[in-house]
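User: quick one
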Amino acid sequence: MTRDEIFDKVRSVLVEALAVDEDEVAPESKLIADLGAESIDILDISFKLEQAFGFKIAQGELFPEGVTQNAEYVQDGKVTDKGLEELGEKLPHFDFSELARDRSVQNVANIFTVSALVDFCERKLQAA
Amino acid sequence: MRWMWIDRVVELLPRERIVCVKGVSLSEDHLHEHFGASGDRAPTPIMPASLIIEGMAQTAGILVGHAEGFREKVVLAKVGRAEIEAEAVPGDQLRYTAAIESMTEIGASTRGVVELIRPGPEGPMPAQLIGAIDLMFSHLDNNMAGQSFPEHNFVFGETFRTLLRSSGVEMPA
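Assistant: Done. Structure below.
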């Protein structure tokens, strides 16, 4: 499956899960800030990706769990070096360069882009 | 008034599918407000679509709760789709069928259809498909980091247990 085909499927999933228009979904779109995703939508997206691509997504594989609530990973509203390392290990499909520049915990949500989802699906399909 | 929008579970295939029914009755208070007389308009009792969605949520919620022996506090988290194309009026029966689409430790998604069975002079008329409702449920204890909830399962309370018992659904000890 080409990257364009993967993007088309991911976009269809997001259109259905988030009730957004196709033209709102661009590779750089942020799921939470731009497309209005809430926490339960993440589970919905995960289920719909499984159905669309036929692979299984383990709990915590697509999005991190508990990292921002962990005092070792977030201190004074900023992601620590250890936190950044943990996120990078758990989520190799995300680009953390922006978060590395601005460590605000609110900025963690911005790593969830459409492009990151496409990367994730591409990796899962290659591994299959 | 009890917050129950289904009357009986008529079929339950664990972790897969459930069918529940609800009889719409003029004795229900809300039908006198939805819609009451207004100006020249006579009272028009119609089952509110929002309560049809609640009926499906209770139907599918039982299926999801049953899958883990009602140990999880299953709460409705998202209405992904709700299309209802016809009105249910007193005397009608609503038939909710829900199936689990996906389920993990933290939640589940269900797909459901609503049928309407209207009484006729020779008996019930054929069921008419009137809606589709897709829902997401969250397992509360596994999903709200840092928050704790009462030990007892307040979601599936006594009224739910009565419904299940009277429907012949086996309850966990």
